[in-house]
Amino acid sequence: MKIITTPAEMQCRSDAIRRAGKRIAFVPTMGFLHEGHLSLMREGRRRAEVVVASIFVNPTQFGPNEDFGRYPRAFERDCALMQEVPVDIVFAPAPEAMYPAGAQTWVEVAEITKGLCGAHRPGHFRGVTTVVAKLFNIVKPHYAIFGEKDFQQLRAIQRMVKDLNFDLEIVPMPTVRESDGLALSSRNAYLSAAERERALSLSRALEAARREFAAGARDPRALVRAACAVLSATPEIRLEYIEAVDSESLASIARVERPVVVAIATHVGKTRLIDNAVFTPPPPG
Ligand code: PAF
191-279, what's its fold? Predict the structure, then answer.
């Protein structure tokens, strides 16, 4: 497994891979890998001859009072895990290599990033889409693989790829969960045992919304109410938002007639956790 740290060397390597007629699958990450990331890398392995993963804790997607400084980092451990997939190339640039002095260009997806997490994390998605656009230009992948756990991020990146004519395919992959339902996240490492127990209320709330939907509810407020009833049984967690919106545009809906995503963000102690579930109504008739 080759480790590359400069954009110029990565671009050179990707050009050579493409010239040799091979396809590149790319998994961008911020490291502290878990089974969710590894499932994306294995999907990359299935699709392409060369798998590239990046590890870069991107400063521009963190707000001033967020966890950039304490975001968990474990490069050696991450490399050992990636070697098992196996990943072929790890791109791990320094912040100065990605944002040299004088950088002043941003990529911003306007509408999709307004609500949900975007309403609570100003500038977050601008940081995400800017770094992902840069990574696409550096790694030059044929496929880029993203988890559905960061649902709004996935939709913003899909929109960006369409709007800016990036010549690659975005491959969405399902959220990986612990056996008790907790969605895997690098931030789960922050949770104490008691907080981890409280964090289960997110997936349980989504399950309650799923039951409501399966019982025929098509009013998005009914899905939210069912989820809220579960969340309110754990008063120690602080709900940031819960919404049921159109799963493509992320816009508000009056009635579920197309796939709907129920998305939740909460604070469990000092840790911000998100989760979501998509429900698809059966075709009419
Ligand atoms: O999902 C993440 O880990 C990050 O937001 C990403 C896509 C690697 C961009 O920094």
Answer: Pantoate--beta-alanine Ligase; Chain: A,domain 2 (3.30.1300)
| Ligand 1 lining (C-beta closer than 6 Å) | 28-30, 58, 61, 128, 131-132, 150, 153
Question: Active-site residues: which are they?
Answer: 37
User: Domains of the chain: which residue ranges?
Assistant: 2-173, 191-279
Nearest ligand 1 atom to the CA of 57 is: 10
Ligand 1 atom, smallest distance to 30 CA? 3
Judge whether 52 and 88 are in contact, CB under 8 Å: yes
Domain 2-173: top CATH class? alpha beta
Place of tokens 């990986």: 176
> Beta 260-268 vs 238-246: how paired, if at all?
antiparallel
Predicted confidence (pLDDT) per residue in 108-125, tens digit: 999 999 999 999 999 999
Other Cβ atoms less than 10 A from the Cβ of 124: the count is: 20
Indicate the pTM of the whole model.
0.98
Closest residue by Cα to atom 3, ligand 1, is 29
